[in-house]
Specification:
By secondary structure, the chain is mainly β. The chain has three domains: about 150 residues, no CATH class; about 50 residues, no CATH class; about 160 residues, Jelly Rolls (Sandwich), CATH 2.60.120. It contains no helices and 24 strands. The strands form six sheets. Strands 14, 16, 17, 19, 21, 22 and 24 form a seven-stranded antiparallel sheet that branches. Strands 3, 4, 6, 7 and 8 form a five-stranded antiparallel sheet that branches. A hairpin with a 5-residue loop joins strand 9 and strand 10. It starts with 10 loop residues before the first strand and ends with a strand.
Length: about 425
């Protein structure tokens, strides 16, 4: 039986898929009408072999002696499968390609043509005949071009790449919206790597941080407020160190070079302090005390003033002292003032402590964390500056501590630390 050009219809279409399915089906619907050379419908059982090629020409080198497809043939892509079909009374049949052997992910440069071979089911493979689409087996167009429908299988991939973490895969975000650690390389070939590329971190409170280890917590930080880098651990330099700017607070051969962090500690009784009564509600008693909080000499011992009164209304007293900034004063540290205080209870109406300051120009300094201080245990207030105060080396500043209390309260003033950067 010669089939020749008697393939009346042959097409490849993707089978319909229910709504909501995100993966393309790996089968292709194929329908055709099979007739003999006289145009009479073939209704007997046939073996129909399908194969995918990158070229349209079928020649003798594409087949083995026994009639099978030569796996080493030029243009053969490696996919084939054979179906046994029995056409209906009109010679029509319908099959699903890919139900025997899984179809490839179609690539337009490789999977270009579909070859269809037919023989009676009982005949040997050497009886297979190529169903030539134009009926001319002498020319170079012996196979069917694959239309765009088959390439929809690539909807399961992107450019033939799967989602996953294997080499060549497309990475995907994990359940918490992050790339799996397996997708992150151990290094980069780039010669420049920029942190904060979008410049969203700005001063005075921002910083850009490169951290080493979660529990380890070691980091290199650029402080945008101070305009310098911070390391939070020791730095070991095994080679030469060249500095073109100023070296601040570095000890070289037991000598400290440049400005470094220093503090002025003022313990009660404050040296040079005056006691001021402002003329209103100043009835009470100011005493000096020492307390050993843990029973160990020299450890957690606190010198302090205590202000008490027998009046039911709030009474106050001012402790005023003038402190001259050192001649080597350069600037203040991030926390300029640490002030130890206590109140009898935590109720401002019963007792409170207020800390104020004037700069070297005699102007009030806007302080943060210094007003209406209350705490029933000795604690340290970390006081910072606002605004633009003026501080000149060698000039005095004025500090005033107001202690306020009723007959059920008491106010305590302890150590003052002025923290600065100086030479």
């Amino acid at each position: 039986m010669i089939f020749g050009i008697n393939l009346l219809m042959a097409q490849t279409v993707i089978a319909a898929q229910p709504p909501g399915v995100t993966t393309a089906p790996y089968t292709i619907s194929y329908s055709a009408k099979l007739t003999d050379a006289a145009g009479v419908a073939v209704t007997t059982t046939q073996s129909i072999r399908f194969s995918i090629w990158s070229d349209a020409d079928s020649d003798a080198t594409d087949y083995l002696v026994g009639g099978g497809i030569n796996p080493a043939a030029g243009g053969f892509t490696g996919w084939q499968e054979t179906h046994t079909v029995t056409p209906d009374a009109n010679g029509l049949f319908h099959i699903q390609l890919g139900t025997i052997n899984t179809l490839p992910n179609f690539t337009s440069a490789i999977h270009i043509f579909l070859e269809v071979d037919v023989k009676p089911v009982a005949s040997p493979d050497t009886a297979f005949e190529v169903l030539d689409p134009d009926g001319n087996i002498a020319n170079l167009t012996d196979r069917l071009p694959i239309n765009s429908g088959a390439y929809a299988i690539n909807a399961d991939t992107v450019d033939n790449r799967d989602a996953g973490t294997a080499p060549g895969d497309i990475p995907f975000l994990d359940p918490i919206g992050q790339l799996p650690i397996t997708t992150i390389p151990g290094g980069t070939d780039a010669e420049t790597f920029i942190l904060d590329f979008d410049n969203t971190v700005t001063g005075p409170a921002g910083s850009v941080v490169l951290q080493f280890g979660n529990a380890l917590g070691k980091f290199l930080e650029y402080d945008t407020a101070a305009h310098w880098f911070n390391f939070n651990d020791n730095l070991n330099v095994t080679g030469n160190l060249t500095v073109t700017g100023t070296i601040n607070g570095v000890t070289v051969d037991n000598t400290t070079v440049g400005p470094y962090n220093q503090s002025i500690a003022i313990e009660p009784v404050y040296t040079g302090a005056t006691i001021n009564q402002d003329g209103t509600a100043n009835q009470g008693k100011l005493e000096n005390f020492y307390v050993d909080t843990d029973g160990v000499p020299g450890n957690d011992n606190i010198n302090h003033y205590r202000w008490t009164t027998q009046q039911a209304a709030l009474q106050n007293i001012d402790l005023i002292l003038r402190v001259t900034l050192p001649s080597g004063f350069v600037s203040w540290q991030a926390t300029p003032v640490d002030f130890t205080y206590r109140t009898q209870d935590g109720v401002p109406a019963d007792n409170q402590v207020d800390f104020t300051m004037e700069d070297t120009a005699g102007n009030p300094v806007a302080l943060v964390g210094a007003a209406a201080l209350v705490n029933p245990a000795f604690t340290t207030a970390n006081i910072t500056f606002g605004g633009a105060p003026v501080f000149t080396a060698g000039q005095p500043i004025t500090i005033k501590i107001k202690l306020s209390a009723t007959n059920i309260g008491a106010a305590y003033a302890g150590k003052i630390s002025l923290n600065y950067v100086g030479r």
